[in-house]
Amino acid sequence: MKFQGQLVYHLLLHMEDRVNSNGVLRFKINDRVFVFGPKEYFLITGLKFGATEALLTESGIYKNIFESKVLMKLQDIEKAFEIACFACNDGGQLVLKLAHLLVLYGLLLCYETHCKTIDIQYLHVVDDLLNFEKYSWGSISYKFLVDNIVVARARLKSMLKKKMKPKFDIYGFTFVLQLWDFEI
Q1: Are 48 and 138 in contact (CB under 8 A)?
Q2: Which segments of the chain does DSSP mark as H helices, in order?
Q3: Which residues contact 101 (CB under 8 A, 6 or more apart)?
Q4: Hey, which residues does 34 pair with through a beta bridge?
Q5: How far apart are CA 64 and CA 66, in angstroms?
Q6: Cα–Cα distances in angstroms (integers) from residue 122 to residues 16, 99, 138, in the given order
Q7: What is the pTM of this model?
Q8: Is it the case that residue 136 has pLDDT exceeding 70?
Q9: Nearest by Cα to 122 from 145, 98, 146
Q10: Is residue 24 pLDDT above 90, yes or no?
Q11: How far apart are CA 25 and CA 126, in angstroms?
């Protein structure tokens, strides 16, 4: 699915200014109010919501693969994935862990460009794939998306007031917002 900028642009124009404390967004379209919240996000993604546990501070993958690099980029994970695919000397465990990271950073906590640095705290979770799959990625990715929607909306409003050409970026799992918009 391709990002539909015009669709999201019109959605942002109909977004109400106030965001609920639990991160529910409200949109007024044709005199009807529609909400986009954790419930709608869960129904589309199926990702787990709930409290996020404390994360590990040490990670084998971080030390061994990324050599404790301070600034990580998505392209660093992609490069490590390609190398691990060719080596494949651990029964595929490393490839699987890196694939999980690619889904996390390339889809759920997505930046559209490879130049953005990523938060390394989640690298530590991937060392235990069972816990990684049980982790509350729905809560994390929903908050990330909503925060970016609010920033984009504020930027868009400011540009329209100044009569500038509208331009905005929304990072995160934006396809969920688009699917929800198609549904409403």
Answers
A1: yes
A2: 5-13, 38-45, 60-64, 74-87, 93-103, 129-134, 137-161, 174-183
A3: 77, 81, 122, 123, 126
A4: 27
A5: 6
A6: 32, 13, 14
A7: 0.83
A8: yes
A9: 98
A10: yes
A11: 31
